[in-house]
Amino acid sequence: MVNTEASTFGGKSHWLKFCLFLMFLLAALIRRDEIRAPGHLIEREYNSAIFAHAFYMDGNDNVEQWRKDIAFTARDQLPMLEPPLTEYLVSLIYRIMGREEIWYSRYVTNLFWLIGGMFLYKTVRVLASVEAALIAAGYYLFVPWGIIISRSFQPDSLMMLMFLISLYGIVLHFKAPTWRSLMVAGFLTGLTLFFRPLVLFALFGAFGALSVHRNKNGQWFQVIDRQLVVFVVLSLIFPLAFYGYGIYIAGFLQGQADLSFRPYLLPRWEFWQGWFNLGARVSGYSFLLFAILGFFALRDRLTRFLVAGLAIGYFVFGLFFTFHIHTHPYYHIQLLPTIAICAAPFLATVAKTFRRWAGGNWWIPIAMCLVIVSYFSWREVRNSLYTSPFENPNLDWEVGEAVGHSPRTVFVAYHYGLPLEYYGELAGAPWPVRIDDPFYRHPDAQELSVQERLDGLGFVPEYFVITNFDLYHRKHQDLQAYLENYCSPIRDTDAYLIYANCRTVAVK
Fold it and tell me: What is the DSSP string of 304-338?
């Protein structure tokens, strides 16, 4: 292992500890600011909030039974995309605090992200130097999209924590290979993929690339040995048990799998352009350039193979998740450790050169740089808050009261109606959006009539609620005609519209 504390800190480990403490403290304070604000990723947050709400209701004897029933119905109508561990942990905090506040969850996700930064620091310290490890951890903690994701109530912060723990275990194994270290790395990877499998290709790419690095004689077929087989088996036991069952047996994940993989997007230039733009925006354009320069400057062979394996894994991941990779920014956060590992040694070399040039006062501009980076990250995150349209929770409760907290509600609302369900304590489904974008339309897709969409809901609607009038008038003229001709309006306000008592005759 590389240990070069003396190179910058003069053999005084307390200065290193102080720098780490200050860096993590600033990262925590940035995430603490405006912690009650609605998150940036509203749909994902309230999907998790509904699960946590159901867990909280399940163990609460001081609420009415109807509230429990609605909470369970709303949860059961949502797809369980991964084991809801984060949601369950947050529900325990609700019980400890004695009340339910969604912003409590952000302390949990922020903590996951900060601990992940510690493991990234440890990994880069093993691979390169203390200076590089500090830069890598600083990048991971302060890159704006990392802050945005860590503030969001969703499982991705836990995924990144487990990803970095698993990566650290893999690196330690190849630094000093033993069967025990292999078992630990495989078990940790299995847990990571069980909690959220999006980093499967990155972790398998890292282990495969380091296996190639270990093979000195150039016989590629020898890469597939007992160690690789043991690692793959240990890594797949847990995720196959859950996701294999969810996709191929129970079917509750089949829709998500179909949504994610859309091979007809691959030949389209817009797909590749969107992928690159999102990846560069999430990782930061300047750091992406530093990473490219840093890869060619890497001297350690093991680190080069590790970076190559992570990059190949990320690329293969994008080929399987073709829809999300060019539309969802948070699908790119697994790229952040690769950028950090690649860019940090290069930037550390630049910093060492500057330190020799600046003399004894070298720490002053570096401290100023940390403050400036913290400020601009804070400002960018601040500017991303309060930008999404969001209904008033009190208004949502009013809607819930108006429909009697019905479990059979159809809604045209912001963010697929998830905040409306959560605050209004009702359940149902959003009205399906028409497929009018030729880019996303499946080649075999056909537009459904109102009756066909009603039949596909899985329940007979009791109420139709409209709160997003812009979407209603732009995308759902056929639904509007159906409601006006065959249903009765029971509430018509400037904020929402509610229909009920629909006749069975449907518009064709």
Answer: HHHHHHHHHHHHHHHHHSHHHHTT-GGGGTTHHHH
